[in-house]
Specification:
Elements lengths: L11 H8 L3 H9 L6 H14 L18 E7 L5 H16 L2 E7 L4 H14 L3 E4 L7 H12 L3 E5 L10 E4 L1 H13 L5 E6 L5 H14 L5 E6 L4 H11 L8 E4 L2 H13 L12 E5 L13 E4 L2 H18 L6 E4 L2 E3 L1 H7 L2
Parallel strand pairs: 1-2, 1-3, 3-4, 4-5, 5-11, 6-7, 6-8, 8-9, 9-10
Antiparallel strand pairs: 10-12
């Protein structure tokens, strides 16, 4: 049976070499076992256990003793969203510099897949998880946090705040994001503003819409709010109907980047002038659309310091593993206003 290397640190590539497979196969055995032949998956997991790469979950009363390379799970709700994709990439790079292996999983905005992913991470014996739950807090999510606590796994929340035991969290200042968006819109020559938002019970929705309302209080702008979903397709479906009704809005705010992409797609399908084009409505995007300026899209937005968010999340995980206590803090990161002129000024 394979043995750990003489250094005592077992890495993912060490398991791959011992098992006679590629590193990506080892990663898939942990994160996407359904993509492998059952015998291959079983072989990889047996080798990993024998080498000490996977250990039993640490109990809450036990101090963390580093006898191997730490394993951190990252679970987010939508990996094809550039916001979460970039955050995950940044965490992965930080993991390498801090001698941690990072296992990435995607819940695909599905409560069932979210629960299954957490089950797999527990089974893998990860030391900690950086966790972004799907949009709305539920009793099931609180129960997941309690189960992770019983397993002795350190949990740091990222972007979505949920009640339950954890070791701190890193969140966006959603109220301020909405307030900045509302202040920008108030300065524009608009009369009818449509906000395309997420679920009404989401803390992200509540914070951002409340900030917009606060900024527009006392203005002459009429406000229409649609509560939907944080993804692109539902926004398209709603606007496909709404754009057939008069009066049309002369300004829109997409509460996140996926919603804003849905706005642009719906206007294109309706053969109406695109937002921020001649004859089209004003448009503001909270979260920003990555590299939109390279495609000729001049969209004012709120952008976030993702590098700071990733660093703070990793700092909280490391502190939790070293201390074994729940002294994690609540870190809040403020978004910054990005205007098309900013991109122009940055060009040589």
């Amino acid at each position: 049976m394979a043995k750990p290397p003489s250094t005592g640190r077992v890495r993912l590539k060490d398991v791959a070499t011992a098992a006679g497979v590629s590193p990506i196969t080892v990663s898939r055995a942990f994160s996407s076992p359904h993509q492998l032949h059952p015998q291959t998956c079983q072989h990889v997991l047996e080798v990993a256990h024998a080498m000490g790469y996977l250990a039993r979950p640490r109990q809450p009363s036990e101090p963390f003793v580093s006898t191997r390379r730490r394993v951190i799970g990252v679970l987010n709700p939508q990996l094809d969203n550039p916001f979460f994709h970039e955050l995950t990439c940044l965490i992965g790079r930080l993991g390498e510099t801090r001698h941690m292996d990072v296992l990435t999983m995607d819940s695909c905005n599905s409560p069932e897949q979210e629960k299954a992913a957490i089950d797999r991470l527990i089974a893998c014996g990860v030391d900690g998880i950086i966790l972004t739950f799907i949009a709305s807090g539920t009793r099931e999510q609180t129960a997941c946090l309690e189960r992770l606590a019983r397993a002795g796994i350190a949990v740091v929340l990222l972007d979505r705040e949920i009640e339950g035991p954890h070791h701190g969290g890193v969140y966006i200042d959603n109220l301020d994001c909405g307030y900045q968006a509302g202040c920008w819109m108030r300065r524009q020559p608009v009369e009818r503003l449509l906000i395309l938002s997420g679920p009404p019970d989401s803390r992200v929705t509540i914070g951002r819409v409340s900030g917009i309302r606060e900024a527009l209080a006392g203005s002459a702008i009429s406000l229409e709010v649609h509560y939907g979903d944080f993804s692109m397709a539902p926004t398209e479906r709603f606007l496909n109907e709404r754009l057939g009704q008069l009066p049309l809005p002369d300004a829109l705010i997409g509460i996140n980047n996926q919603i804003t992409l849905g706005i642009l797609s719906a206007y294109r399908q309706a053969r109406l002038p695109l937002p921020e084009h001649a004859g089209g409505p004003r448009l503001f995007c909270i979260d920003g659309i990555t590299h939109a300026e390279l495609l000729g899209m001049e969209i004012s937005s709120i952008r976030h310091d993702l590098a700071t968010m990733a660093t703070q999340a990793m700092d909280l995980i490391e502190d939790a593993l070293q201390s074994g206590s729940r002294r994690g803090t609540r870190q809040v990161v403020r978004g910054h206003l990005h205007l098309p002129s900013d991109a122009e000024q940055a060009l040589p």
